[in-house]
Amino acid sequence: MKSSTIRTPDAEARPVRVKAREVCVFYGPKQALFDVSIDIPEKAVTAFIGPSGCGKSTFLRCLNRMNDTIEGARVTGRIELDGDDVYDASLDVVELRARVGMVFQKPNPFPKSIYENIAYGPRIHGLASSKADMDGIVESSLQKASLWDEVKDRLQEPGTGLSGGQQQRLCIARAIAVSPEVILMDEPCSALDPIATAKIEELIDELRENYTIAIVTHSMQQAARVSQRTAFFHLGNLVEEGPTDQIFTSPAEKRTQDYITGRFG
Length: 265
Ligand SMILES: Nc1ncnc2c1ncn2[C@@H]1O[C@H](COP(=O)(O)OP(=O)(O)OP(=O)(O)O)[C@@H](O)[C@H]1O
What we know:
alpha/beta; six-stranded mixed β-sheet; about 35% helix; about 30% strand
């Protein structure tokens, strides 16, 4: 596939980082996704919305092969990251998951210190050649996740001792620490209170300057606040996708209109 660009409402055309074509997913005999094709541009947030069970998380997990970990799951079609076939048999999946990081619904820090939560990934990927190097990666990752000031004096304390919102920012810092190109977020605020949610949304907005972000959200308000592009899924189909303001104000499809006006969902 040729490289291309895509327009986001805030800026000039952005290069496409992730290309999915005719992606189908099966869980055993049951088909959960039907021929999903989408381009995801860099330095923008793409939101996946739609009613429960429509396949948003399933599709997100295709992008870094997290579905490989689900027994009976099968993916067909093609997904490219910067032109590389994500499902190529010779591709190193551990490497892929460093390039395409993931943040989950419930914050899931390792049962280790705050420092170790960040240092673990860079260590296994050989990204630091000295203790000073590693200290630098830990600090800059926590800075980028807007957590440094809150934890700099307690780096040796357990990550699990932080508040829910801090834990989620720790998980974002952990993803950032291995220098990903893409960050996937699966309802990253669903376990958080409104103040912690606002902080994460602010952070997502900052992160998009440097990363390609795809986020699954149940909240249309959140999609409208944080994303530049929105994709609406229904019953395993990608119904339509486009600039967020267009999807919310003048969608092309009646099903999208019905969903965003609360007629179902
Ligand atoms: N591990 C699994 N095994 C079998 N079926 C699954 C599995 N995970 C998801 N499914 C099914 O695939 C379909 C899509 O689920 P998915 O979780 O991707 O939807 P979703 O839009 O993210 O839903 P929600 O918003 O409720 O999280 C659903 O019918 C679901 O039951």
